[in-house]
Amino acid sequence: SSVYMCYNLFPDHITASIFLLLSVTDMSCNKTMLPFAAGLTVGIASAIAIMGVLHPRRKAQKRLAKGNTIFLLCDIQEKFVPVIDKMSQVIASAKGLLATADAMNIPVIATEQYPKALGHTVKDLDVTKAQVFAKTLFSMCTPEVLEAILATKRKSAVIFGVEAHVCVQQTTMDLLERGFEVHIAADAVSSQRPDEASFALARLEAAGAVITTSESVMFELMRDKDTPEFKAVSAAVKDLANTKKTLAA
């Protein structure tokens, strides 16, 4: 318990070890207790060092800001509609995010996985203002898409689409490796089987992605009810909430 307390209380294992050394100073002043105090300090400090390797702290996550955020719509296509779990919710959530992007002038990049066979982005989603790329790579990060992402000079990406354990997961890993902050709208991603999606989200969170929701993204980008986009985005939030309520009935 002392190891966990010190590890969580201090910013690194070295500082925690110094604290432990100071905490046994009184003990070490007693000659009979000196060997015990020294051994105790070394032992706990070593344990803290090991924890620092096995359980490294994650760096603080940056919050979304509309001037530094890009939306990535991953493969929400016609052929996936009948086979993806909770696809109606995915589409509704994506629709709310697209409305937010439109109101806040957030760039949107959409991909379509082998559209010749799987069709184009569903008609319920208006991608006329988005850059749309066909692909065969599972990840969205084709050379053309990466070029478009880098051209925005934005470092935070919000990802939504299908499938969570394939294209969304590989896109997220690729972007994390390139130093992007990645936020995944959990209610706007899915797979054919629910367990695949849940395992993918757990893995991606462990890898450093932020697991959030569409509504949370929308409010985080607004920050203030006095923002000029509040009316449009709050209407999208309300529409999404009503749709989810209907789907759950």
How would you concisely characterize the structure shown here?
Helices cover 53% and strands 15% of the residues.
Description:
This protein is an alpha/beta fold. The protein is 53% helix and 15% strand. The chain contains eleven helices and six strands. A six-stranded parallel beta sheet has the order 3-2-1-4-5-6. Strand 4, helix 8 (164-177) and strand 5 form a beta-alpha-beta unit. Helix 5 (87-104) packs antiparallel against helix 11. The protein starts with a helix and ends with a helix. Mean pLDDT is 87; it is low at 1-5.
- In terms of quaternary structure, the protein is single chain
Give the class from helix and strand content and strand pairing: alpha/beta
Query: Secondary-structure element order, as H and E?
Result: HHHHEHEHEHEHEHEHH
DSSP strand tally: 6
**How much of the residues is beta strand, in percent?**
5-15%
Q: Which blocks of ≥5 consecutive residues have pLDDT under 50?
A: 1-5
Helicity level? 40-55%
Instruction: Give the overall form.
Output: globular
Order of strands, main sheet, comes to 3-2-1-4-5-6
Whole-Å distance between the termini? 47 Å
Describe the secondary structure blueprint for this structure:
Blueprint: H1 2-9, H2 13-23, H3 25-29, H4 34-54, E1 69-74, H5 87-104, E2 108-113, H6 115-118, E3 131-135, H7 143-152, E4 156-162, H8 164-177, E5 181-190, H9 194-207, E6 210-212, H10 214-222, H11 230-248
Parallel strand pairs: 1-2, 1-4, 2-3, 4-5, 5-6
